[in-house]
Amino acid sequence: MLRRTEANDLMEFDDKEPSHLPTANALRIIKCKAVKDQREEDDPILAICKMKYLHPYINIIKDIGYDRFYVHYWTAPEINVNRKYVQHNNISTICIDATGRLVKKPTLKSEKKTRNILLYEIAIHDKTIKAQYSISHMLSEKHNNNSIYNWLIEWIRYGAPYPKQVITDMSLALSDPMSLTEDILLY
Q1: What does R_g of the chain's alpha carbons equal in angstroms?
Q2: Bridge partners, 94 (sequence order)
Q3: 147 burial type by CB count under 10 A (0-12 exposed, 13-18 middle, 19+ buried)
Q4: Contacts of range 85-91, beta carbons closer than 8 Å, 24 or more positions apart
Q5: Positive or negative torsion for Cα 57, 61, 65, 70
Q6: Which helix (H) or strand (E) holds 130?
Q7: Would you write out the chain's pLDDT as a tens digit for each of its 187 residues?
Protein backbone atom coordinates (compact mmCIF):
# COMPACT_ATOMS: atom_id res chain seq x y z
CA MET A 1 0.00 0.00 0.00
CA LEU A 2 2.83 2.38 0.91
CA ARG A 3 4.61 1.62 -2.36
CA ARG A 4 1.44 2.19 -4.40
CA THR A 5 0.75 5.51 -2.67
CA GLU A 6 4.34 6.65 -3.19
CA ALA A 7 4.23 5.60 -6.86
CA ASN A 8 0.97 7.51 -7.42
CA ASP A 9 2.57 10.64 -5.95
CA LEU A 10 5.75 10.37 -8.02
CA MET A 11 4.59 9.02 -11.35
CA GLU A 12 2.17 9.74 -14.15
CA PHE A 13 0.59 7.07 -16.31
CA ASP A 14 3.17 5.31 -18.49
CA ASP A 15 6.19 6.82 -16.63
CA LYS A 16 9.21 4.67 -15.89
CA GLU A 17 9.55 3.60 -12.28
CA PRO A 18 12.01 5.87 -10.42
CA SER A 19 15.04 4.13 -8.89
CA HIS A 20 14.48 5.60 -5.42
CA LEU A 21 11.03 3.96 -5.17
CA PRO A 22 11.49 0.98 -2.80
CA THR A 23 10.60 -2.44 -4.13
CA ALA A 24 7.92 -4.55 -2.45
CA ASN A 25 10.61 -6.99 -1.28
CA ALA A 26 12.69 -4.18 0.29
CA LEU A 27 9.61 -2.98 2.17
CA ARG A 28 8.91 -6.53 3.39
CA ILE A 29 12.47 -6.83 4.71
CA ILE A 30 12.20 -3.47 6.50
CA LYS A 31 8.88 -4.51 8.06
CA CYS A 32 10.33 -7.87 9.16
CA LYS A 33 13.31 -6.13 10.82
CA ALA A 34 11.00 -3.66 12.58
CA VAL A 35 8.83 -6.47 13.95
CA LYS A 36 11.93 -8.39 15.15
CA ASP A 37 13.25 -5.26 16.88
CA GLN A 38 10.02 -4.99 18.88
CA ARG A 39 10.29 -8.55 20.19
CA GLU A 40 11.48 -8.99 23.73
CA GLU A 41 12.62 -12.56 23.07
CA ASP A 42 13.87 -14.25 19.90
CA ASP A 43 12.90 -17.71 21.14
CA PRO A 44 9.11 -17.97 20.62
CA ILE A 45 8.69 -20.47 23.46
CA LEU A 46 10.47 -18.22 25.96
CA ALA A 47 8.33 -15.35 24.66
CA ILE A 48 5.19 -17.37 25.55
CA CYS A 49 6.67 -18.00 29.01
CA LYS A 50 7.02 -14.24 29.50
CA MET A 51 3.51 -13.63 28.13
CA LYS A 52 2.07 -15.97 30.76
CA TYR A 53 2.73 -13.30 33.39
CA LEU A 54 1.57 -10.29 31.36
CA HIS A 55 -1.88 -8.83 30.93
CA PRO A 56 -4.16 -10.07 29.22
CA TYR A 57 -2.61 -13.58 29.15
CA ILE A 58 -2.07 -13.89 32.90
CA ASN A 59 -5.31 -15.84 33.41
CA ILE A 60 -5.32 -17.62 30.04
CA ILE A 61 -1.99 -19.45 29.68
CA LYS A 62 -2.04 -22.17 32.35
CA ASP A 63 0.91 -24.49 31.78
CA ILE A 64 4.01 -24.47 29.53
CA GLY A 65 6.66 -27.07 28.74
CA TYR A 66 9.88 -26.13 26.94
CA ASP A 67 11.78 -29.19 25.72
CA ARG A 68 9.00 -31.23 24.26
CA PHE A 69 7.01 -28.03 23.90
CA TYR A 70 3.41 -27.70 25.01
CA VAL A 71 1.08 -24.92 26.15
CA HIS A 72 -2.29 -25.41 27.87
CA TYR A 73 -4.60 -22.41 27.64
CA TRP A 74 -8.25 -21.48 28.13
CA THR A 75 -10.21 -18.52 29.41
CA ALA A 76 -12.62 -18.12 32.33
CA PRO A 77 -15.55 -17.49 29.93
CA GLU A 78 -14.77 -20.80 28.19
CA ILE A 79 -14.94 -22.63 31.55
CA ASN A 80 -18.22 -20.82 32.34
CA VAL A 81 -19.74 -21.76 28.97
CA ASN A 82 -18.85 -25.37 29.68
CA ARG A 83 -20.40 -25.22 33.18
CA LYS A 84 -23.66 -23.84 31.77
CA TYR A 85 -23.64 -26.49 29.07
CA VAL A 86 -23.22 -29.25 31.67
CA GLN A 87 -26.06 -27.80 33.81
CA HIS A 88 -28.51 -27.87 30.89
CA ASN A 89 -27.51 -31.24 29.39
CA ASN A 90 -27.91 -34.61 31.09
CA ILE A 91 -25.14 -36.16 29.03
CA SER A 92 -22.38 -33.60 28.61
CA THR A 93 -20.21 -34.44 25.63
CA ILE A 94 -16.90 -32.94 24.66
CA CYS A 95 -15.11 -33.41 21.34
CA ILE A 96 -11.31 -33.48 21.14
CA ASP A 97 -9.49 -32.96 17.88
CA ALA A 98 -6.09 -31.82 16.70
CA THR A 99 -4.88 -30.10 13.60
CA GLY A 100 -1.40 -29.47 12.28
CA ARG A 101 0.35 -27.05 9.95
CA LEU A 102 -0.84 -24.01 11.90
CA VAL A 103 2.36 -23.50 13.88
CA LYS A 104 5.82 -23.27 12.38
CA LYS A 105 8.43 -25.46 14.07
CA PRO A 106 10.44 -23.10 16.27
CA THR A 107 14.16 -23.55 16.84
CA LEU A 108 15.11 -23.67 20.52
CA LYS A 109 18.04 -21.76 22.02
CA SER A 110 19.98 -25.03 21.88
CA GLU A 111 19.58 -24.90 18.05
CA LYS A 112 17.35 -27.97 18.26
CA LYS A 113 14.31 -27.78 15.99
CA THR A 114 11.04 -28.94 17.55
CA ARG A 115 8.89 -31.66 16.07
CA ASN A 116 5.50 -30.92 14.52
CA ILE A 117 3.35 -28.83 16.83
CA LEU A 118 -0.36 -29.58 16.74
CA LEU A 119 -3.23 -27.45 17.99
CA TYR A 120 -5.52 -29.59 20.13
CA GLU A 121 -8.97 -28.31 20.96
CA ILE A 122 -11.88 -29.33 23.15
CA ALA A 123 -15.24 -28.27 21.77
CA ILE A 124 -18.85 -28.73 22.79
CA HIS A 125 -21.84 -28.82 20.48
CA ASP A 126 -24.99 -27.57 22.21
CA LYS A 127 -27.89 -29.10 20.29
CA THR A 128 -30.53 -27.02 22.08
CA ILE A 129 -29.20 -23.71 20.75
CA LYS A 130 -27.47 -25.27 17.72
CA ALA A 131 -24.06 -23.80 18.41
CA GLN A 132 -20.53 -25.11 18.82
CA TYR A 133 -18.02 -23.65 21.27
CA SER A 134 -14.33 -24.11 21.78
CA ILE A 135 -13.61 -24.47 25.50
CA SER A 136 -9.95 -25.46 25.87
CA HIS A 137 -6.77 -25.52 23.78
CA MET A 138 -3.33 -27.07 23.76
CA LEU A 139 -0.35 -26.57 21.48
CA SER A 140 1.81 -29.64 21.75
CA GLU A 141 4.90 -31.22 20.30
CA LYS A 142 3.97 -34.43 22.13
CA HIS A 143 1.26 -36.47 20.46
CA ASN A 144 0.36 -39.23 22.85
CA ASN A 145 -2.42 -40.08 25.24
CA ASN A 146 -0.30 -39.15 28.29
CA SER A 147 0.04 -35.54 27.15
CA ILE A 148 -3.67 -35.36 26.30
CA TYR A 149 -4.55 -36.89 29.69
CA ASN A 150 -2.33 -34.34 31.47
CA TRP A 151 -4.06 -31.51 29.60
CA LEU A 152 -7.54 -32.80 30.54
CA ILE A 153 -6.61 -33.26 34.20
CA GLU A 154 -5.20 -29.71 34.39
CA TRP A 155 -8.34 -28.38 32.73
CA ILE A 156 -10.56 -30.15 35.28
CA ARG A 157 -8.28 -29.03 38.14
CA TYR A 158 -8.90 -25.42 37.06
CA GLY A 159 -12.67 -25.88 37.48
CA ALA A 160 -14.03 -27.53 34.36
CA PRO A 161 -16.73 -30.12 35.13
CA TYR A 162 -16.07 -33.77 34.31
CA PRO A 163 -17.57 -34.68 30.93
CA LYS A 164 -19.87 -37.70 30.66
CA GLN A 165 -18.71 -38.51 27.11
CA VAL A 166 -15.56 -37.76 25.14
CA ILE A 167 -15.65 -38.00 21.35
CA THR A 168 -12.46 -38.25 19.31
CA ASP A 169 -11.56 -39.04 15.72
CA MET A 170 -9.59 -42.10 16.86
CA SER A 171 -6.26 -40.49 16.05
CA LEU A 172 -3.06 -42.44 16.57
CA ALA A 173 -2.24 -40.40 19.67
CA LEU A 174 -5.34 -41.79 21.37
CA SER A 175 -5.41 -45.31 20.03
CA ASP A 176 -1.77 -46.34 19.61
CA PRO A 177 -0.53 -48.30 22.65
CA MET A 178 3.08 -47.56 21.66
CA SER A 179 2.43 -43.82 22.04
CA LEU A 180 2.45 -44.35 25.80
CA THR A 181 6.12 -45.27 25.62
CA GLU A 182 7.08 -42.87 22.85
CA ASP A 183 8.77 -40.40 25.21
CA ILE A 184 10.73 -43.16 26.97
CA LEU A 185 11.98 -44.68 23.71
CA LEU A 186 13.17 -41.34 22.32
CA TYR A 187 15.42 -40.63 25.31
Answers
A1: 23
A2: 166
A3: buried
A4: 85/124, 85/126, 85/133, 86/161, 86/163, 88/126, 88/128, 89/126, 89/128, 90/164, 91/164, 91/165
A5: negative
A6: none
A7: 777 777 777 777 777 777 777 777 888 888 888 888 887 777 788 889 999 999 989 999 999 998 888 999 999 999 999 999 999 888 889 999 998 888 888 777 777 788 888 999 999 988 887 889 999 999 999 888 889 999 999 999 999 998 888 888 876 655 554 443 343 333 3
How big, in percent rounded to 5, are the helix, strand and coil portions of the chain?
A: 40, 20, 40
Helices (H), ranges, 89-161 = 145-157
d(CA 83, CA 92): 10
Whether the Cβ atoms of residue 110 and residue 181 lie closer than 8 Å to each other:
no
**Element at 171 (helix H, strand E):** none
**pTM recorded for the entire structure:** 0.73
